[in-house]
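Hey team,

Filing this mostly as a record. A colleague (T.K.) asked me to run one chain through the structure pipeline before their review meeting, and I want the input and output archived in the tracker in case anyone asks later how it was produced. No errors, nothing strange. Just documentation.

Input sequence:
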Amino acid sequence: MPSTDSSPSRTGVKAHRNTLFVEDAVILSHESYAGNQYVLRVSAARCASHAQPGSFAHIQCTPTLPLRRPLSIMRADAGQGWIEFLYKDVGNGTHALSRRKTGETINLIGPVGTPFRLDRSRPRALMLGGGVGIPPMIFLADNLRTDSHWRPLVLMGSEAPFPFSAHPSRILVPGMKDGVIAAMPLLDDWGIPSRLASLQGYPGCHQGYITDLARGWLEALTDGERAEVGVYACGPHPMLETTARLAREFDLPCQVSLEEFMACAVGGCAGCTVRITTPEGPAMKRACVDGPVFDASIIDW
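Output structure:
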């Protein structure tokens, strides 16, 4: 007899059935950057073919650690079968991962999670990435660059050195503050404007928060231009909360990818729950399979 159980735990599992893959991924490259940051590229064909901006992989950093670590996917190439991550060495798991070498194999589960949902009526995609929240914005920008319908702007903030050599942007951004010219070279090469922010005094960066930089840009738009903006963000909780308030102030739709501690990352343990608001009252959702991307307006900040 078919099951009639429609509880969130059952429906969440069903929504992700046949979309998660367990793969032994070979490390293709593993580059280190200032601030204990690393860019890891692995061969994982099935994950690469299904990955979308906002999804992540649950990685076994080393066989000696029982718990995996969730890492946002920064780039994926379905044709060549690789995925790429940016992460920071901040604990036992990521420290062990940082010691892994090219040619070694790591096990991963992915792609996990609900991705960003694009609204073509809002072609001005304003993307904010803070720290290790930068990767989903790069992935989203990569997906948009081949469609001339979109007019994206990527703002990135970091208090550690950026994991790339910033250079003066070749792309003009109307309404941007004078002197804020530092950009990510990869995005410039893609034809996507970007600007950087930090409190560390890095040359060419906005000396402050990316939410302040976003506010200035939004204020410079006409009412008609602002009506075309959709906001996408990933980063530390305070940054996302401020982004949500900013979007609400300007009456803009906003999606945020939450960074939460996870154990299983497949919806079983409910250790990554997020409190949201519904018409029926407060509810709890799991960041791993119900998210990590949520409508910012329903989160109980």
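Quick notes for T.K.: DSSP finds eight helices and 17 strands in the chain. The CA atoms of residues 114 and 291 lie 5 Å apart.
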